């Protein structure tokens, strides 16, 4: 995990020096002609091909023309690579496409070792660039497709592959929302944030304690990367098992924490619990729409009357705070947890309609039929609700609540820093909050059939709750 993160950052920064990479990937020197650089390293080719930053050019092209089919980065150079060398680029071509508000990525590879190349770095590094590009374009992350001419496993790695397959417990962590923080750095700040990241990495490698500075690092995803790198150097300095666990726990309910639990302690399977029962989302969605329609008649536009910060953000914060308290063990009182979660989802979706009122770019992304005031009345809300779907299995209430809380915190911080404008960036954060609120609602509904029955028209949307599940969805 440490090498995967370190090499990813090295590529994205446009570097190809062995001095940095060999600290994390000792075998990298075996593929360097001069033991100083990787002549075929992706970094300089991606970020400085004859003075062209291909990442920036793709970003600018797709911002100006989202329908473009020319957003291509080339990594194989025929002028340099038809030579006798230890290092010819294996990944040769990256193609970004924007379709229906999502960024798709196609990767063409001449030759891929499934253990070291494909699994060890390529899927990870390009997924990070993919997420970054989606953020810079104000779009969702779509699928990535790999076209690989030769995908292989070397004979000397058979035993290692067998161990990996034997130890795989059929779960990845994503089933219970062990999902990492999201990238949130605007392009104009990216170079400075990278410089700061590598400064902290170098100081960690030299033995400094940068804990406080890492905690204040501005980008959530890259902060988690630094936290992981800090664990590598703490281990090198002799940190015992207890200290390592403390540092991994600081990564929270993230995919990186899940991976490090497996790498360091071999206990990732113990982090998973049985999923809660399924809920018929289509029926529940219509019940929420009916409930909102009746409330809209009663309360009208009071939810947004005093603007984005005073009314909308305050409503979201009030609901999120209450969810945190109840999931943490406080009594629910007259308003059930499901009531609160439904309100959070409703406010999150309504916030998206508000953003559409402020920005034609947002409106064009969200709505197909045009219009001017998407947040007035129930129509805009209902269109967005019916466009929503659920991806993957829903985790426990605690897991989904943690994700919703993290999503709200990111939105809250961004709103404080950008009280005006930045509508597409706000939309990306709002959509994440909506997605997590939806999953949380399904988790609560599956663990609280009585609460579901109390919603209008919801008497038949539940399947059976497994024996042994308590009201919080746990075991």
TrEMBL record:
Key words of the record: Methyltransferase, Transferase
Alphabetical list of InterPro entries matching this protein: Thymidate_synth/dCMP_Mease, Thymidate_synth/dCMP_Mease_dom, Thymidate_synth/dCMP_Mease_sf
Keyword Transferase: yes
GO biological process, one term: dTMP biosynthetic process
Acetylation is among the record's keywords: no
Signal peptide range: none
Cellular component terms (Gene Ontology): cytosol
A GO molecular-function descriptor: thymidylate synthase activity
Domain Thymidylate synthase/dCMP hydroxymethylase: 4-165
One Pfam entry name: Thymidylat_synt
PANTHER family, sorted: THYMIDYLATE SYNTHASE 1 (PTHR11548)
Name used for this protein in its record: Thymidylate synthase
Organism (species): Microbacterium lacticum
């Amino acid at each position: 995990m440490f090498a995967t993160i370190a090499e990813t950052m090295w590529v994205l920064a446009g570097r190809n020096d062995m001095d940095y990479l060999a600290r994390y990937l000792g075998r990298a020197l075996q593929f360097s002609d001069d033991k100083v650089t990787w002549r075929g390293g992706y970094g300089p080719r991606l970020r400085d091909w004859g003075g062209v930053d291909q990442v920036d050019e793709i970003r600018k092209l797709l911002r100006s023309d989202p329908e473009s089919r020319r957003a291509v980065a080339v990594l194989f150079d025929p002028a340099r690579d038809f030579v006798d060398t230890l290092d010819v680029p294996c990944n040769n071509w990256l193609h970004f496409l924007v379709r229906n508000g999502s960024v798709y990525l196609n990767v063409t590879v001449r030759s891929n070792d499934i253990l070291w190349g494909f699994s060890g770095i390529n899927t990870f590094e390009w997924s990070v660039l993919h997420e970054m590009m989606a953020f810079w374009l104000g779009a969702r992350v779509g699928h990535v497709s790999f076209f690989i001419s030769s995908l292989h496993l070397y004979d000397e790695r058979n035993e290692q592959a067998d161990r990996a397959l034997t130890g795989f417990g059929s779960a990845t962590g994503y089933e219970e929302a062990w999902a990492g923080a999201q990238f949130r750095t605007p392009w104009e700040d990216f170079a400075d944030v990278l410089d700061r990241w590598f400064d902290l990495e170098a100081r960690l490698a030299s033995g400094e304690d940068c804990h406080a500075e890492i905690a204040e690092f501005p980008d959530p995803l890259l902060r988690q990367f630094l936290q992981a790198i800090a664990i590598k150097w703490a281990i090198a300095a002799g940190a015992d098992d207890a200290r390592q666990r403390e540092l991994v726990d600081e990564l929270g309910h993230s995919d990186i924490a899940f991976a490090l639990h497996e790498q360091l302690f071999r206990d990732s399977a113990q982090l998973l619990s049985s999923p809660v029962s399924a809920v018929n989302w289509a029926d529940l969605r219509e019940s929420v729409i009916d409930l909102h329609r009746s409330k809209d008649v009663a309360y009208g536009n009071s939810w947004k009357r005093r603007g984005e910060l005073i009314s909308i953000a305050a409503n979201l914060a009030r609901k999120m705070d209450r969810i945190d308290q109840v999931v943490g063990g406080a009594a629910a009182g007259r308003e059930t947890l499901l009531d609160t979660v439904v309100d959070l989802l409703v406010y999150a979706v309504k916030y998206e309609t508000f953003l559409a009122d402020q920005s034609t770019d947002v409106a064009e992304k969200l709505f197909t039929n045009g219009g001017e005031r998407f947040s007035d009345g129930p129509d805009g809300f209902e269109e967005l609700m019916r466009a929503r779907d659920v991806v993957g299995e829903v985790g426990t209430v605690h897991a989904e609540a943690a994700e919703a809380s993290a999503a709200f915190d990111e939105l809250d911080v961004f709103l404080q820093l950008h009280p005006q404008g930045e509508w597409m960036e706000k939309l990306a954060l709002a959509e994440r909050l909506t997605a997590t609120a939806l999953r949380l609602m399904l988790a609560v509904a599956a663990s609280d059939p009585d609460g579901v029955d109390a919603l209008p028209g919801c008497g038949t949307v539940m399947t059976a709750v497994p024996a042994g599940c308590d009201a919080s969805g746990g075991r």
